[in-house]
## 1
Amino acid sequence: MATEKEEKKVYVNKKGLRLDGRKIDETRPIKITAGVLKNAKGSCYLEWGQNKVLVSVQGPREALPKHTANPLKALLKFTYRMAAFSVPDRKNPKPGRRDIEISKVCGEALEKSVFLEKYPNSQIEVWAQILDSNAGSRAAALTAASVALADAGIPMKDLVTSVAVGRADGKIIVDLNKDEEDAPDAVDMPIALMSNSKEIVLLQMDGLFSKKEFDEAFEVAVKSIEGIKKLQIKALKEKYESKEFEQASKLSEKALPKQPSNLLEKDLPKQKVDQKTGQKKEEKKAEVQ
């Protein structure tokens, strides 16, 4: 009976709506907040549907161990971890093959966007912690990590924005949830772009598309990424245009040591040479009696 019910499940109805009421080209609600961790150089908190991601950035700082240092550019170390309570069945906190694979591909994607050559012999550390997960966590982590890097003041060519597109019930849909990932004909394709140049920095596929389906999925992904990038930019603007940031900037400026003012030559005390001693004396103005 359970199998028959699963076969009869309609993932996209006649009105073009999915199980959770979204349209086929509609993402889940996304909320991005930059600069949430005071002890990190840069940070970001992202909610994407049920997914909740916290990312911190440290560095650039000395590359350790020293034999890993590159004299031509910085190393970017991306660490992806899922909390034990992030999924219904308790996850082993020890990093598995999936965690290691996502850490690798996300790190390589972010490397494309950062001017690593500005920081030779150093390393930039990006930590992404998944607090709650429901499909699409790598896209959420990568999107949040790019905001955290920008928050840290790391020079970048462009923000990296990611989304997953796929197929369920024969329809191309964007931002699959867990139920849609488990559809009988499901295909999941995470993709990340630097949208200004349209450079693809991440493209993976779980399943098979026809050429026509791939072209349609890619078009839908690009459109969604443009909307998500606006949310990334909005999050950064909200932090750096806020009154709290302005006040913190003023306090930090006051804490800096004052620089000596540049005196004009006319403001310098005039000096003359004592004919007896040969030493310079400051000319004193005659006091008016």
## 2
Amino acid sequence: MADVPESNDPTPIWPIPGEQTDEIVRAAFPLRLGLAEGKVALVTGAGRGIGEATARLFATEGAAVVVCDIDVASAQAVVQSIQERGGEAVAVAADLTKEDDVAAVINTAIDRYGRLDCAVNNAGISGRFGSFIDLPLHEWHQMINANLTSVFLCLKYELGVMAAQGAGSIVNVSSGAGVVAAPGLPHYTAAKHGVLGLTKCAAQEYAAKGVRVNAILPGTTRTPMIENFINGDPQIEKMVSRGIGRGHLGEPNEIAEAAVWLCSDRASFVCGESLLVDGATVCR
């Protein structure tokens, strides 16, 4: 084997732990791989955070992207950014707890692009911490509707289109709370466990029809919600990061990399999987 020449370039090949940003993570993967070349991808909750990073990565990897968010202004901003970089995208506003809205999102994809190859069901809400016995019923219903019913409705329409095509790939976004309890968040824990149940059921039913369904379980990630909680305080960030195996927050693009890979043909034999993307948090 030839010797590897020494380099005087101090720039690290990989991101430095504790100093990651989306830009640094993308710098570690500079080549466009074409993982989604020629595909049409739908991303829900794509106006910010993990959904935004996923929509941008799909576009980078060659997909036309349907950017769906309840906040149309956020969705349009993401679309504009994708288009400015030469990508193809369209914004759609929807309340995914309403079946008519979900049907309209799928129809937009079909009317605009003629097919739907990939979907990442990411939209959801966080919950208010509190005692199990003090959880108001209306908060339970709100959480289940936003984080579980929405995924069911999206799957219902995505599976129909993809099965008719004979091909497609869906990734549902759960959480570490999908496999372990999040004390103080019984409604969130139940919803995220339920997402994994829907994933397994859909995978079993539709694998033979050419549709792969998987789930990712992100760990604590630097999303706007977490940033607002930390509020720029390094001590709070240290506290939040304490339970993460690698010792620091995940970045949205790190989660997006897993979602886009699962949707790609590189993951052609992966179906019914629940993939932890959490920096060695749950396994500890």
## 3
Amino acid sequence: MDIADVIAQLIERYGAGDRHFARLVLRDADLTNVNLEGADFERADLRQMRLGKANLRGCNLRRVDLSEALLWGVDLTGADLDLAQLREADLTGAILAEARLEGVNLCKANLNGALLRRSRLRRSRLYEADLRASTTHQTDLTGADLREVDLSYAQLNEAILRGADLTEARLCRANLRRGVGQDFLATDLTGAILRGADLSYCDLTGAILRGADLRGADLTGAILTDADLTEVRADGPLPL
């Protein structure tokens, strides 16, 4: 059965009320703008899929392989993506509010302008991931669970991380600096928990760290020039 037939069968089954597509193998196919809300794709092989603007709200995508997939603008609100592979995936402007993303591989993924409000990313890998603001809005990680997450070298300038839990997260050489010019906003870490986090050589120039918890954090070589450090909790003097 060729790709076109598999897609046609998938759409037909979904239209008939079937939501069970676990272990489906469908690579390098185009499902742009498709509505598959609430479908079960656990352990499916969807590498290099084109799912831009698709409705995948509430889908079961546990252990799904979406490596190198095009997922720009996709709606994954409340979806379960635990242990999924999203290496080098394009999630520009994706909606991942309240999504489960624990143990996910997002290395080198493009999350530019993604909405990750109250998502759970514990033990996920975001090495060299791009979480910068898009042309329309900032990457929103308000209240996100980012405990033990690897954000080494990640681009997080202008991101909103208010109240996010970054306990023991790895942010070595991550870029959280404010951009240059009056139109750029500061990275907002107000009330963020950074206890035991690796912030070595992290650039926090102009960032808002008001009320943040930095106790036990490694700040070796960190740049905090012009950062708002009001009521920050730390073990000692901060490098300025």
